[in-house]
Design goal:
alpha/beta; Rossmann fold; seven-stranded parallel sheet; five-stranded parallel sheet; 12 strands; about 35% helix
């Protein structure tokens, strides 16, 4: 066969725009393979406005078939670049049919808009489960034992730590309430049972027997958030953020705390909690401990936390582990390869007819 006819009949490589951060793990074999399969363009826009211009007819990204965003989204240099909103999507070229983005959540993408445009959107489920669950375990223990305050005293005024004498308590035998028994929620519950000796209850939109079994211990299902709050010594938020879950914990919810107060841990999304109400509940004693990896107005924390060492606050770093970056990278490219090989990605959030 004439070599020229082979090249003419060859299917062109899909154009994939790669958006990555300074924090990324690369699987050498996979990376070599996808570089051969795809024409990979690298995102280097200074701002989202410049990205929109590059998407326009004749722009350097005007013929992309997919976008793969991998690495740690909260790391530089593009941590503030929201590329999957409705205002940006209106600039997408007709050729764009797939977006893959690292992470379990997808609240930073306008899924309804993308679906109407015929664009698949994929996240990377169960890739940072271990890292986030370990962070939750640390925050749970800190909410009971107040280690942040103790460390502050060790660095500043040793004797001040003795104020914890009648406040610190172990979580052994107490009730952990998990809001959102997904992959991360199950892992948190299992670690709390096996590592801290806690009992577990949970609230989901519906009961999930398979998830209960995965915990490895007897688990109580709560049919309402109010029921969970009324029996829990510590509440962990591990659910998605949606308009319906905005401020799901606020003044009225904190009033449901059992005698002795509740502890609040959030490793999901900051806007699930009304932080002003949480700070007041800590002052009132209805909440007696708090551990937050996520915050209502990121980046940064509420001023009320800055000198409050009885609460543990982290800079949305629960995902921060090499195991997460390795998982992100693999699943992102697995989705891209599956889509262009079969017409359907592996972990879609939406469904395109």
């Amino acid at each position: 066969m004439d070599p020229e006819s082979v090249s003419l009949d060859a299917k062109p490589k899909p154009n994939i725009l790669l958006v990555t951060s300074d924090t990324r793990a690369i699987h050498a074999e996979q990376w070599s393979r996808v570089q051969n399969k795809f024409n990979i363009l690298t995102y280097d826009c200074k701002n989202v406005q410049g990205f929109c211009q590059d998407l326009s007819t004749g722009g350097r990204f005007s013929n992309i078939d997919a976008i793969v965003r991998t690495g740690w989204l909260k790391a530089e240099p593009y941590s503030t670049h929201r590329l999957f909103t409705t205002s940006v999507a209106k600039h997408y070229p007709p050729s764009l049919k797939l977006i893959v983005c690292s992470g379990h959540g997808y609240d930073a993408a306008d899924i309804d808009t993308l679906t109407k445009m015929g664009i698949w959107y994929c996240n990377t489920p169960d890739t940072c489960t271990e890292a986030v669950a370990n962070t939750a375990l640390y925050l749970i223990l800190s909410a009971y034992r107040h280690f942040t305050f103790a460390e502050h005293c060790a660095r500043n005024e040793w004797s001040g730590s003795r104020a914890l004498g009648m406040k610190a308590v172990d979580p052994l035998g107490t009730m952990l309430g998990v809001v959102g028994m997904g992959d991360i929620g199950v892992r948190i519950a299992r670690k709390a049972v096996m590592g801290l000796g806690m009992d577990v209850c949970y609230y989901n939109r519906k009961r999930d027997l398979k998830r209960e079994e995965a915990v490895g211990s007897e688990v109580r299902y709560c049919s309402s958030l109010g029921e969970l709050l009324s029996i829990s010594d510590c509440v962990v938020l591990a659910c998605p953020y949606t308009p319906d879950t905005h401020h799901m914990l606020s003044t009225e919810e904190f009033k449901l705390a059992k005698e002795g107060g509740m502890r609040i841990v959030n490793i999901a999304r900051g806007q699930l909690i009304d932080e002003a109400a949480l700070l007041q509940a800590l002052k009132d004693g209805t909440v007696v401990g708090a551990g937050l990896d996520v915050h209502e107005n990121e980046p940064g924390i509420n001023e009320g936390w800055k000198d409050n060492y009885m609460a543990t606050v982290l800079p949305h770093i629960g995902v921060c582990s090499r195991t997460s970056w390795e998982g992100f990278e693999k699943v992102c490219w697995d989705n891209a390869e599956a889509f262009f090989d079969t017409g359907k990605p592996l972990t879609p959030v939406n469904s395109i007819p």
